[in-house]
Amino acid sequence: MITELQKNEFYRCKGLLNKQGQLEAKAVVEGVNPGRIFVNQIDTPQSALIWLGNNDGFLFIGNEDNEQFNNQINGFVDRVIVSEAKKVGLHYFEGIGNHPKWNQTIEKIFKHRKLGSWKQRVYKLHKNNFIVNNEPDIKESYTVLKIDNALFEDNTIKNSAFLQSKILSFWSSVECFLNKGIGYCVVYDHHIVSLCFSGFVVENVHCIDSETLEAYQGNKLAQKLAHHFVKDCLAQDSIPYWDCMDSNKPSIAVAENIGFTNIFNYVGYEFSFN
Predict the structure, then answer these.
(1) Measured between alpha carbons, how far is 32 from 36 in angstroms, rounded to an integer?
(2) Are the beta carbons of 131 and 257 closer than 8 angstroms?
(3) Hey, which residues does 239 pair with through a beta bridge?
(4) 225 within 8 A of 108, measured Cβ to Cβ
(5) How distant is the alpha carbon of residue 251 from its chain centre?
(6) For residues 148 and 5, what is the distance between their CA atoms, to the nearest angstrom?
(7) CA–CA dist 127, 233 (Å, integer)
(8) CB 77 within 8 A of CB 273
(9) Pairing state of beta strands 261-272 and 239-245?
(10) CB atoms within 10 A of CB 177
């Protein structure tokens, strides 16, 4: 029977993690970022499903050949996940294997559903590869600010709720982010129009989340913020980590122009709850 672990039991899944796998899975298991974990058995789990706290997907970890777990997962999705997901406005199941052997299993488990797929790229940047001299200039009307306590308390920012919601979609609290994360934003006319911050953190590795409001895209704001983020990261002997869709060419261009190296790729699968 698939059972949900309490947060103080997440440590039982550490041995199921692929060391070369996605940072997000490690961040949830280690309790840095919020999430939920469902296992085949509580005491000594062999397989598990991680639901990322930002509702951005489900990660399968551990033994991909666990028949007990695999035979129950469809019913569990229909019985538990669908209703829970709809409460938070989620209408798709996006499933990812923590190691490549899960791909075949996921395809087999969900073969009766209308299963789509996409590809992701994962990059890391090490200090020696950082291309410093291509930081773009941006218009003087744009101001780069560090995401810190002062920014959250700045009453002149008119869309502070945007910043708050972005941070809280990854972190259990603003304080938790400020203690563990790094972030920068661009302000224009008292509005935050672009963000680049640590979405997930494990030890000294920071997974970047970046967003520029549509009306302000094409002004090199994401690239400018990425430079600020990377410089701060490297100054702390931390490693920037970038995970983006293979189809997201602008995001890939920003990463590669700064010196990020593609370290592995993976496949994601999706189907509708409707």
Answers:
(1) 12
(2) yes
(3) 205
(4) no
(5) 14
(6) 33
(7) 10
(8) no
(9) unpaired
(10) 23
Q: Of the candidates 3, 2, 28, which has an alpha carbon nearest to the alpha carbon of residue 16?
A: 28
Cα–Cα–Cα angle for 213, 215, 218, nearest 5°? 90
Q: Which two tokens stand for residue 28?
A: 């949830």
Helix (H) or strand (E) segment spanning residue 234: helix 221-235
Residue 196 has φ and ψ, to the nearest 5°, of -150, 115
Tokens of 200: 């997930």
In this prediction the pTM is 0.94
Question: Sheet harboring 239-245: ordered strands across?
Answer: 3-4, 35-39, 47-52, 58-62, 92-97, 261-272, 116-124, 239-245, 205-212, 191-202, 183-188, 143-146
Q: How far apart are CA 163 and CA 181, in angstroms?
A: 14
Q: How many CB atoms lie within 10 A of CB 59?
A: 25
Ramachandran sector of residue 154 (left: φ over 0; alpha: ψ -120 to 50; beta: rest): beta
Question: According to the model, what pLDDT value does residue 57 have?
Answer: 94
Give the type of residue at 1: M
Q: Digits of tens for pLDDT over the chain (274 positions)?
A: 999 999 999 999 999 999 999 999 999 999 999 999 999 999 999 999 999 998 889 999 999 999 999 999 999 999 999 999 999 999 999 999 999 999 999 999 999 999 999 999 999 999 999 999 999 999 999 999 999 999 999 999 999 999 999 999 999 999 999 999 999 999 999 999 999 999 999 999 999 999 999 999 999 999 999 999 999 999 999 999 999 999 999 999 999 999 999 999 999 999 999 8
Residue with tokens 């006319």, as numbered in its chain: 189
Alpha-carbon distance values, 177 to 28, 49, 85, 95, 152 (Å): 14, 25, 25, 26, 12
CA angle 60, 61, 62 (to 5 degrees): 135
